[in-house]
Amino acid sequence: MTSERIAHAPSYAQVSLALMTHNQEANLLGNVHGGEIMKLADSTAGAVAQRHSGGPAVTAAMDEMVFLNPVYVGDIVRTSAQVNWAGTSSMEIGVRVEAQAWNDASIEPRHVASAYVVFVAIDADGNPRAVPGLLPETATEVRRQREAEIRRAHRLARKKEIEAGRDPLD
Question: Are 54 and 12 spatial neighbours (Cβ–Cβ below 8 Å)?
């Protein structure tokens, strides 16, 4: 038996989801609550992680979520996501969120948010399991993988710095 991992192109597990927003998702300003957008981004990323890893995967970190424009009640919200980076058992999934007025197809979709979500693939006992590697095929996919590696290095360095500054008795 070989120890070589299989690998997939980012396009292998790409997912897009869409929904129409409603009043029950509104915040106090009358726009769609950011938490609803985060939930949709996490759900989309989770589907990508499941597909790429070939089994269950859980959210380990919402590395970054940037809100760029409001989402209005009644907007059609579309998410698209793909694997940016894959390690031994974890993956970074990039998510793009766009919104468009439900009643006017001539209005261009607005880029309303972007997110980077880290997932860990798990086995039946909840332990980390190996995931396929990633084979970027385009210049954009190579760039996304490089940027994901930078975000990972920053996450690990931040964690190390925080732990180094803690009192061992805390």
Answer: no
Residue ranges and CATH numbers for the domains of the chain are 7-164 (3.10.129.10)
Distances 46 to 32, 68, 97, 162, 166 between C-alpha atoms, Å: 21, 22, 15, 28, 33
DSSP state of 35: H
Q: How far apart are alpha carbons 120 and 65 in whole angstroms?
A: 18
Q: From CA 113, how far away is CA 91, in angstroms rounded?
A: 20
71 Cβ contact partners less than 8 Å away, ≥ 6 residues apart: 21, 31, 32, 37, 77, 97, 99, 112
Would you say 120 and 58 are in contact if contact means Cβ atoms under 8 Å apart?
yes
- The pLDDT tens digits of the residues spanning 18-72 come to 999 999 999 999 999 999 999 999 999 999 999 999 999 999 999 899 999 999 9
pLDDT tens digits along 95-154: 999 999 999 999 999 999 999 999 999 999 999 999 999 999 999 999 999 999 999 999
Helix ranges restricted to H, the chain: 34-53, 139-164
